[in-house]
Amino acid sequence: xxxxxxxxxxxxxxxxxxxxxxxxxxxxxxxxxxxxxxxxxxxxxxxxxxxxxxxxxxxxxxxxxxxxxxxxxxxxxxxxxxxxxxxxxxxxxxxxxxxxxxxxxxxxxxxxxxxxxxxxxxxxxxxxxxxxxxxxxxxxxxxxxxxxxxxxxxxxxxxxxxxxxxxxxxxxxxxxxxxxxxxxxxxxxxxxxxxxxxxxxxxxxxxxxxxxxxxxxxxxxxxxxxxxxxxxxxxxxxxxxxxxxxxxxxxxxxxxxxxxxxxxxxxxxxxxxxxxxxx
Length: 279
Known about the structure:
Elements: H1 12-24, E1 26-28, H2 29-35, H3 40-53, E2 57-60, E3 67-70, H4 81-87, H5 94-97, H6 120-131, E4 135-139, E5 149-161, E6 164-171, E7 179-183, E8 187-193, E9 210-214, H7 223-232, E10 239-243, H8 247-254, H9 272-278
Antiparallel strand pairs: 1-3, 2-3, 4-5, 4-8, 5-6, 6-7, 9-10
Helix pairs in contact: 1-3
């Protein structure tokens, strides 16, 4: 029996209870009290609703010793351990995951900053996306010798690629108004609005055509390594599914794609050995 509704339609207190009971094995009224002060009648209502939407749970004990426990292995998808990994991407928020830091320590390595150089630029970008307005970005790419210059862009949405946030938009200065990707941290500023082309421009969606590509594994991989990499890169039936605009970067990171001769790379010349020599 599947849950009757998903987490977006449930009170957050009920979602918390179900996730905690499913992931820890049990949840108590005292767990609710830590984050969601309420009356005893309200607690009873949340607990009853949790049992209703998650048939894998049951009530155990009486009075203050009562708790809800997991009785079957089949749990709602939104309370699964797979869903937990998505919830943990920004660190452990116990109100969302149902798990305390002391129970599941989570460490997030942050190497980069995603804000534009001018922090006020992000708000202008957001407002332009919401208001469907073209903007003029001051942006610098990584081609050799490149300096920042103004780009007239029709912003369509934001995209997260690994630990990097980007702006996806149409380049209004190029024929056909092609999609372009702008790393937020390389945007120096936003300098007002620009005009929408009067001819041939139709506001696009951010969707990109997907392509299936045969996965060519490195023959030096052992069979166990190949299984692990196929899992990591979501290989199905020997194929990798990618968005068109992601292909170059994907195969640059995981494949044998050559770097563009025009690009300044690497960004740093540091090595671990350099630090060891300093010490």
